[in-house]
Every structure is written in structure tokens, then in C-alpha cells.
Design a protein that fits this description.
Structural class: mainly alpha
Distance between the termini: 42 Å
Shape: globular
Order of helices and strands: HHHHHHEEHHHHH
Number of helices: 11
Radius of gyration: 19 Å
Oligomer: single chain
């Protein structure tokens, strides 16, 4: 883990990449595995080093989560269904579509463990967003069996914008269901008092969950404040390196590679 951190997260000169099977680029999944390992090690050891690593990886993962809702053409499935992209994670910088491969429960629980409302809210918001893609009755999302769910939802012109595919490997359905079962055991009380079923046994509480608009704003504010958080004593070099990497990537997208002719 230390070596992996030094290679991919300490400076982000070689960022998390090439974990997606059909792409060769920076992606969500490589960072997701690092996050999950750091999260599990934190559970086992309570070592603050693993908390820092999990936070850096979580920040990377959240750069792939949509924080706005694109508009779709009339006649598209997304438009007729009122599909909202906000909360859905993208796949990679090469595959521009949304899917359910994301540690929603672990992100949520990590936020609760570390008293970080952004991770907590974003984990739950991402999980809630994924419920839109489940077939509720024959005909939903072009499926005939309730409970089916497609792998790819296309929010950009990368592929059939405003529609989804019908490829439905077992992991898509199993992952959403697995997280649903875990959230069911730790869900917010209908009364809004903010206690989970697990926490009701020891009388712990949680404040009112924020609305969706606040979720987007909180995540964006956290990401764009990383530079300030990383400056001075106790700053997290990995997070500052992540912000610097994203800033360079955006500059390349807008202006092209340094020194390249326009």
C-alpha cells in the first residue's frame, strides 16, 4: 500500500489509471480499489495514515461524480423519464457514460466514521441516483422483467445521448441490490430524527440530511478548497497534488497541450 500510494497518490504524476477493462486512461476504478483497501485497513487498525489515504482516494472518486443535470433532446428516453445525472459516477476520461460501479455504502460509512458530511451525503446521493435506472415494470428502460438494470447511461454525445444500453451483466443488478440491503439496515428514520437502525441501539444521532442542491455545492466547495486545506502545517500533499493534476487536465482540455500549435 505504501508503494502504491507513493506511485499514484503522493504527487499524482502517475494518477490512478487503467483499471477499466476497455480503456487506457485515468479512471474511477483504480482509485476505487485504493479507497476500499485504505477504508478496510482503517477499520482494522484505526491508523490515521489510512484515513488520509482513504480521503485522498475519495476526493479522486468524487471528481467523477456528476454534480449537475444536463438537458436532453425532445424524444429521448432521459427527457421523457426525467432522468437526472446528478449523483451518478462516470467511468473514465475515455468512457463518457454513467454506471453503478461505485462504493456508495463505503463512502457513506467512511463519512460517518470520520465525521465528514460531504462523504456521507455524496455516498447516499450516488446510491439514490442509481435507483432511477431500475426497471419497475415491463417496458422500463426497454427491459421486460422488473428489477433489470442496464450497465451504461449516456449523458453525453459520446454515445446515443439521452439513452441507455440493455447490457445487463449480473454485477450491475447485484451491486445496487447489495448496497440497498446494507443501507436498509442503516437507514435514516422516517421521522427525520437522523438515527440509523444500528445507532438507535446506542442512542447516537445525525442531523437532517441536506437537499440535493446543497450536496452538489458542498462537494464542489470541498474539492476547490483542497489547495487552501493543503497549505501550511498539517496539509495533505496528496490532495493538493490531486487538485493540481485536475487543474492541469482542465487547462489541456481548454487550451491544448503546452507548446502545441492551435
Amino acid at each position: 500500500m505504501q508503494r502504491y500510494y507513493e506511485l499514484h497518490a503522493e504527487t499524482f504524476e502517475r494518477p490512478f489509471a487503467r483499471s477499466t477493462l476497455d480503456a487506457k486512461c485515468e479512471d474511477k476504478e483504480a482509485g476505487m480499489y485504493f479507497f476500499l483497501v485504505a477504508y478496510e485497513l482503517l477499520l482494522l487498525t484505526d491508523d490515521p495514515r489510512y484515513r488520509e489515504w482513504a480521503e485522498i482516494a475519495a476526493d479522486w472518486l468524487l471528481t467523477f461524480v456528476y454534480l449537475w443535470n444536463p438537458q436532453y433532446d425532445r424524444g429521448s428516453k432521459f427527457r421523457s423519464e426525467g432522468f437526472l445525472a446528478a449523483g451518478w459516477p462516470g467511468v473514465s476520461v475515455q468512457n463518457h457514460h454513467l454506471d453503478v460501479f461505485f462504493p456508495t455504502y463505503e463512502m457513506w460509512r467512511f463519512g460517518r466514521m470520520t465525521d465528514n458530511p460531504v462523504y456521507e451525503r455524496m455516498g447516499r446521493m450516488s446510491f439514490d441516483a442509481m435507483g432511477q435506472g431500475i426497471c419497475r415494470k415491463p417496458g422500463d428502460w426497454n427491459f421486460t422483467v422488473a428489477g433489470e438494470q442496464g450497465e451504461g447511461f449516456f449523458q453525453t454525445n459520446w454515445n446515443h445521448r439521452g439513452h441507455s444500453n440493455k447490457w445487463n451483466p449480473s454485477w450491475v443488478i447485484a451491486l445496487v441490490l447489495h448496497n440497498a440491503l446494507r443501507f436498509r439496515d442503516e437507514d435514516i428514520e422516517p421521522s427525520g430524527k437522523g438515527k440509523t437502525r444500528r445507532e438507535r441501539s446506542d442512542d447516537a444521532g445525525l442531523g437532517e440530511p441536506a437537499g440535493a442542491e446543497s450536496e452538489y455545492r458542498a462537494s464542489a466547495c470541498r474539492f476547490y478548497s483542497l489547495r487552501r486545506c493543503g497549505i501550511g502545517a498539517g496539509g495533505r500533499a496528496g490532495s493538493v497534488a490531486l487538485l493540481s493534476f485536475v487543474e492541469r487536465s482542465v487547462a489541456v482540455l481548454l487550451c491544448g497541450e503546452p507548446g502545441a500549435s492551435t
